[in-house]
Structures are given as C-alpha cells and as structure tokens.
Amino acid sequence: MTSIEHSLVSPGTVVRIFSDAETQQLISDWLAVFGRNRKGLNTKSYLWHVFSGGRYPSVDGKAAVDAYRQQTGAEFIVLSNNRDVAFLTELQPERSSLIDYYVFPPNLAWTMAVTHEAGWLGPYFALHPNYSALNAANQARLRKSAEAANARKRGWC
Fold first, then answer.
1. Given phi > 0 = left and psi -120 to 50 = alpha, else beta, which region is 89?
2. What is the DSSP-derived secondary structure letter of residue 73?
3. Contact 89/75 with Cβ under 8 angstroms?
C-alpha cells in the first residue's frame, strides 16, 4: 500500500482501488438509486445536490452523522465527488483526505454524502428504497465475515 492509499481513509485501510471503468459504473449505480430525480440540479459539480435540492429524501447535519454511525457492514465503498477515485475499505470511514465524497455498502442500502459545505450544507444521509432487505443482507454478510475471522483465528481454516 502506498502512503497515498493509507491517507485516503481513517480508520481502516484501502482493501481495493477500483479501476476507472469500475468507478464510472459505481457512479452510474449510485445515480440510479439516489439521483433518479436529478434533472435541473447541478449534479455534474456535486452529486450531493440531489439531497440539498430536496430531490431525494435524506437527513442532514448531526442527524446524518448519527444515522451513519448506526450503520454496520463488512465492506464500505468510498467514492470521490470528482468521480476519479473509488475504493473499498473494511471499516466504516470516519474521515477521508477527499474533500467531497460518498460512503456506501456495495449493495447501496444507504449512502453518506460528506460535503465541503459541512455545517451549512450537509453532510447528508439517505436510505435506499429497499433498505430493510438490503440492510438484512449486509448484516448477514457481516456475521459471515465475523465467523470466518473467528475460524481463522482458531486455526480452523
């Protein structure tokens, strides 16, 4: 891991950096869920305008941070607003060296949009329309990951 990769996220480490094509697909997937009603908003500059513009239901500020901290999972994707980098990390990020970025599990059950305007606009937290089922899948994956780690620790694998 390079020092750049190490500084991208805290806590945790970058497990994988997505290719340019994969990053573009992640943007498309994110917009398909959270940005469907973005017409008329400047999402070319900031994807989070779907939240600040009221086009997708979200909570902001302290409520967003509180909702985000309640989420758990086995993996998290971090996507830069500049659309030039996306990576996977095993711990839920509290900070990143990116200015504006989005955190979400691979199945997009929810998203946290961290903005450079925090305190005035954002951060924002939003749920996928099918959050309950997707979050249940995330929790099952988290349990399996913990079971596998425990088995490795005991020398069973």
1. beta
2. -
3. yes
Residue ranges per structural domain of the chain:
3-153
Instruction: Find the DSSP H helices in the chain.
Output: 3-7, 20-34, 49-52, 62-69, 131-153
SS3 of the chain: helix, strand, coil, percent, to 5:
35, 20, 45
Q: What is the pLDDT of residues 49-91, one digit of tens each?
A: 999 999 999 999 999 999 999 999 889 999 999 999 999 999 9
Going by C-alpha positions, the residue among 102, 61, 60 that lies closest to residue 80 is: 102
Query: Whole-angstrom Cα distance, residue 105 to residue 93?
Result: 11
Q: Which two tokens stand for residue 157?
A: 């694998």
Cis peptide before 123 (omega within 30 of 0): yes
Which residue is associated with the tokens 């940005």?
A: 35
Q: Are 84 and 72 in contact (CB under 8 A)?
A: no
